[in-house]
Amino acid sequence: SILLANNGYKVNLWVxxxxxxxxxxxxxxxxxxxxxxxxxxxxxxTSSLNEAIGTxxxxxxxxxxxxxxxxxxxxxxxxxxxxxxxxxxKGIETKSLQTISQILKETLPETCELASLxxxxxxxxxxxxxxxxxxxxSDSEKTALLIQSIFSxxxxxxxxxxxxxxxxxGGALKNIIAITTGIADGLKAGNNxxxxxxxxxxxxxxxxxxxxxxxxxxxxxxxxxGDMVLTCTGELSRNRQLGLRxxxxxxxxxxxxxxxxxxxxx
Length: 266
Prior knowledge:
By secondary structure, the protein is α/β, with parallel strands linked by helices. The chain has 13 helices and seven strands. The chain has a five-stranded mixed beta sheet with strand order 3-4-5-6-7, with helices on both faces. Strands 1-2 form a two-stranded parallel sheet.
């Protein structure tokens, strides 16, 4: 939202928690998930999906995977004709093993166009204006170029891809490797082990992705190797932090009761 507002766009920001939405309107700051950043007047927080969509035809969906299906079902009757829905989430649905775009294809109107935005980008660094690169992926080159034009700025380089499936698979599977890397680091297994996990993890990612119909070269780019290196080594990575805590001997139920590291990672 900060980047898009800085690029000159007016953004309707849907906030799930009504209290947080009201607080952002009052203080112009998301003190829960992104404290310390002033949100411009061109960002309009709302807890109403209907109000957030309004007359807009470009929807950026950034929702945890386990909530995508329910949110998508709520979105479907509210969308305007020929809307473009851009998924920026990363994950695979547990029961169906579907990617987010596959879920959206099932639940949204056929008139909707789908695309993905993914890559090695911590939200905090994007908000800070630090140099970053990301990938806009769509079956349509015209759509990918449109997304590229919307998000590009002097600190964010946007590349395009015609392999949205590979982009989403890479964005999801790298989380597993990041947790594993964190466990190894928590166990103090050494730098050699970390390098081995990342490298062999990439091989496994390519095997799974190509078996599902993605392009091998996608996984050598930003949304495969790039995102995996960031998530496996960056201290802001929630998956890495989870692995570290497991490697240090904490149990999953105890970690779930104390998830401050998730908020702190922003």
